[in-house]
Amino acid sequence: MTTILLVEDDSEHAEIVALRLGEDGFRVARAHTGPAAVSAVENGDAIDALVVDFQMPAMNGLDLLAEIRRRGFDHPFILLTAHGGEEVAVGALRGGASDYIVKDIDLDYLNLLRPTIERSIEKLHFLRESRTLAKALESTLAAVAITSPQGLVEYVNPAFENITGYPRGHLLGKMLALPEINPSLDEMPQEIHDALLAGNSWQGELRSERRDGKSFVVDLAVSPIVSPAGTIANVLWIQHNVTERKLLEERVKEANRELQALAIKDAVTGAYNRRYLETALPNEVSRAKRYRLPLSVLMLDVDRFKDINDAHGHPFGDEVLKTLITLIRQATREPDIITRYGGEEFCLVLPNTDRDGSRLMGERIRGVIEEHRFEQGSASCNATVSIGAATLGDTEAPETPQTEDASALLDRADRALYRAKQLGRNRVCVWVDVASD
């Protein structure tokens, strides 16, 4: 079970957060001060991540973060800030925090704890894997040989033996065997000779041969080792088996792609997260204005989702949200952007979609979800959604649509969603209809 160290000096609030973390399936350890948290981490307690409140006496959240990182610990660190603490949050990210959550009076931010913690832990796993791969590239795949200016081998590393099949004792004192290059400084190709005399390295690919006769392509780097007198004392030869290198490079690239995806994806549903929406929606608004294209936004909320969690538990609730995203994807188009806005609320960005199109899309999604039976094991339920729609240009001042921004568009969709809830849920409300009421 994942253990979270909750650092909070307000005992009443700490109790609320700890209870929610427990409901989300985490084991909770608690510290009331920054120094106590440092001690818990240093003592080797089985802590998987830290959730830390910013405002604490003696050592605030940023001070604790700096101390934890200074001591060499890379635990995921999630900072809780009060509403409006964006500057603190930015400082936390720059200081090495994994993420931050802005607290609100209604405690809705508690819904963000579990996905934020899971995303931060998964991100750390990928970072550690990338570090391991980097070490492998340096110590395992690089075949290193050092020769005299005459091309005689003075040193080879174990990787060189593995790649060529020649034991070290067989190579020392012998000419370095390279089918396409004479290793003697005076007889090597002119291009390499000139680069080394100028104090530079040369790099290129060539075909080499193992002791058993099998050939392979290596990426070869040749560098001079210059004596204090300024002459070339030795030559450094570094070979990489290109096939293995390419394989590991792809693994590193895949790890980086996963890291990038974690930064913009919701850990529970796999949909884009709110952070991604904050970039994507302004871009779509700018594009729609530039080319005078329609653009609509849907705000969608699962009706009475708390009742589902209370009846069947949070794991089942998570499965409902995952299935919900699958149903939405099936009902929408490839260019449509689906994001988890927070908790059980989602935002859809619909390029090239006018007001009537947004209403039709909303009804299609609402109907598909209403007809679906959500099941996991012995638990099952039906669910409905309320949807608010807004279209770019449907403003309170329609004569000036070019001044409209993404925030205003989201606000109108949210107001339409609120109206759909007021009218009894399980319905689609378009903002222009709400505005005319």
List the defining traits of the structure above.
single chain; Beta-Lactamase; about 425 residues; five-stranded antiparallel beta sheet; Alpha-Beta Plaits; alpha/beta; 17 strands; 3 domains; five-stranded parallel beta sheet; Rossmann fold; about 25% strand; elongated
Q: How would you describe the overall organization of this protein?
A:
The chain has 15 helices and 17 strands. A hairpin with a 2-residue loop joins strand 12 and strand 13 (345-351). With 437 residues, the protein is an alpha/beta fold. The longest helix has 29 residues, at 113-141. The chain has three domains: 3-103, Rossmann fold (3-Layer(aba) Sandwich), CATH 3.40.50.2300; 139-247, PAS domain (Beta-Lactamase), CATH 3.30.450.20; 265-436, Alpha-Beta Plaits, CATH 3.30.70.
List the helices and strands and how they pair.
Layout: E1 3-7, H1 11-23, E2 27-31, H2 34-42, E3 49-53, H3 61-70, E4 77-81, H4 86-94, E5 99-102, H5 113-141, E6 142-147, E7 153-156, H6 158-164, H7 168-171, H8 190-197, E8 202-209, E9 215-226, E10 232-241, H9 242-264, H10 274-291, E11 295-302, H11 305-312, H12 314-331, E12 337-342, E13 345-351, H13 355-371, E14 373-376, E15 379-382, E16 385-391, H14 406-422, E17 428-430, H15 431-436
Parallel strand pairs: 1-2, 1-3, 3-4, 4-5, 16-17
Antiparallel strand pairs: 6-7, 6-10, 8-9, 9-10, 11-13, 11-16, 12-13, 14-15
Helix pairs in contact: 2-3, 5-9, 11-12, 12-13
In quaternary terms, these chains amount to: single chain
**Biggest sheet character:** 5 strands, parallel
**Total number of β-strand segments?**
17
How are the strands ordered across the major sheet? Answer: 2-1-3-4-5
For this structure, what is the CATH class of the largest domain? Alpha Beta
DSSP helix fraction: 40-55%
Q: Which structural category do the helix and sheet elements fall into?
A: alpha/beta
What is the end-to-end distance?
52 Å
Do you know the CATH architecture of the largest domain?
A: 2-Layer Sandwich
Regions with little confidence, pLDDT below 50 for 5+ residues = none
Strand-residue proportion:
15-25%
Query: Quick check: average pLDDT?
Result: 86
In DSSP terms (H or I, runs of 4 or more residues), the helix count works out at 15
Number of domains: 3
CATH structural fold name of the largest domain: Alpha-Beta Plaits
- The Cα radius of gyration reads 30 Å
Coarse morphology: elongated
| CATH homology group of the largest domain | Reverse transcriptase/Diguanylate cyclase domain
